[in-house]
Amino acid sequence: MSDPDLRWKCKECGWTGNGAELLSAPNPFDPTYTISGCPQCQTVDSFDNICDEPGCNDYAGCGWKPKDAPYRRTCSKHMGKHDYNAALAAKEQT
Question: What is the pTM of this model?
């Protein structure tokens, strides 16, 4: 969970936030690994990656690269949404 821009949802308490907000510490069983904790309930490593679309907290099961934009992690309903809308608008102008 090292990417500070990815959004996460705690499976235990429902907290949502980005990777920079997660608690982190060396794993007590193997200090070469880092564990992440929920800042609200302190549960360890119990997170789902959630959609990067503003206001959407659905599970991010899709990763995709929009044209001329950074990589995205979204839910299925936002997968490719912006590329499709831009292509549709361009087609309507012709």
Answer: 0.75
